[in-house]
Structures are given as C-alpha cells and as structure tokens.
C-alpha cells in the first residue's frame, strides 16, 4: 500500500514538474522603444563673403564684401537643393591693374544661383559641392549694367554645432570666360567668391 501511494505521489510530482517547466524554453523578448530621430530637411542661412571679378589680361580687379542669403532642402544625407542670393555691402572696390585709370569703378554687385548640392558626411562634418546655374551683375559698368549668366561650381565644408545649427565655409566659381555681358573690352574674366556663415535647419 505504501509502495503504491509512493509511486502515485512520485508520478504526480514528476507530472507537475513537466507541466510547470513546459514553457521554460520560451524566452520572453523585452520591448525596447527606439528613440525617434528628428529630421530637419529645410534650412536657411546667412554668411559674409568676399567676391572678386578680375580681368586677367589687364589685371583689373573689382571686389566687394558681400552678404549671402541661402535656403535649401535636403533630400537625404547626400543630396540637397540650394538657392543663394548675394549682394555687395556698399560700392565695390576697384584696382586698375596695368591700366592706371584714376576714376575707378564704384558700382554695386549682385548675384544669385541655384545649385544641386552633393554631400558626404563624416561625423559632424559635411564635405559638399555646388553645381548649378546663376548670374552676376555689376551696376553701371562701362556705361550700363553688366549681367552675365552661366555655370557655377563650388566646394565647401560644414560643421554641425547641434542638430539644427551648422557653420560653413565654401568657395564658388561664378564665371571664367572671355568677355562679360558681350563687352569686348573685358577680355578674360574670372569671377569667384569665398563665404563663411551659419545655417539653421527646421
């Protein structure tokens, strides 16, 4: 009798262990909430720069300190579309080069451009290019406004101070060709600009 009871108790105990441990092999995966990554596709910016328009034949040089306004849209971390408008702060400076002209030039400078902006991120840095079309304008040059459009290209680097604010510095070639606005007396013109500034993403 005792043996029978002992056998029954043993069977029940083993059955309970088997039942209780039936789900022990299933691991419960903990729920981890992933933090949301904020994306700021639009940006605006302002910068200070220096532009020069040189006649490499006569060494004449027109230069100006500029304010640059920019706005853009980042499609992803590697491509953006950007527009810029640049205006000179006051009248341009003039260096006559080999001509020895004394009355000089004191007109105003303006330019604009629309660019495809390929980018390559390295940590907080972005190395980027600028490829597009734009125009430069010199007011009252040789009796009238000189307006010249063409291909623009540039190179630059930016550094993210935070998710929204970055600093940048770049170089843009605005023009490199014979003449300027069909003026034959302007033989071999090179125009370019350097800019440093801040951008804000939103």
TrEMBL record:
Signal peptide range in chain numbering: 1-20
InterPro entries according to UniProt: Beta-barrel_OMP (IPR027385), OMP/PagP_B-barrel (IPR011250)
Domain Outer membrane protein beta-barrel per the UniProt entry, residue ranges: 41-202
Keywords: Signal
Pfam families, sorted: OMP_b-brl
SUPFAM superfamilies membership: OMPA-like
Protein name: Porin family protein
Naturally occurring in which organism (per UniProt): Sulfurovum zhangzhouensis
Lineage: Bacteria, Pseudomonadati, Campylobacterota, Epsilonproteobacteria, Campylobacterales
């Amino acid at each position: 009798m005792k043996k029978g009871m002992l056998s029954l108790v043993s069977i029940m105990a083993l059955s309970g262990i088997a039942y209780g441990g039936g789900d022990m092999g299933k691991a419960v995966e903990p729920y981890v909430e992933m933090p949301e990554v904020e994306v700021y596709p639009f940006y605006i910016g302002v910068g200070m720069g220096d532009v020069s328009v040189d006649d490499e034949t006569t060494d004449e040089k027109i230069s100006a300190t500029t304010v640059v306004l920019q706005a853009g849209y980042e499609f992803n971390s590697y491509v953006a579309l950007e527009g810029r408008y640049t205006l000179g702060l006051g009248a341009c400076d003039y260096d006559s080069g080999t001509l020895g002209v004394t009355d000089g030039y004191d007109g105003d400078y303006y330019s604009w451009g629309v660019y495809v902006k390929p980018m390559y991120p390295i940590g907080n840095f972005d190395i980027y290019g600028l490829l597009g079309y734009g125009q430069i304008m010199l007011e009252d040059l040789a009796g009238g406004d000189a307006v010249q459009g063409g291909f623009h290209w540039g190179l630059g680097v930016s550094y993210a101070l935070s998710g929204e604010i970055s600093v940048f510095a770049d170089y843009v070639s605005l023009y490199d060709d014979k003449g300027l606005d069909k003026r034959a007396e302007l033989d071999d013109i090179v125009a370019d600009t350097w800019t440093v500034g801040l951008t804000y993403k939103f």
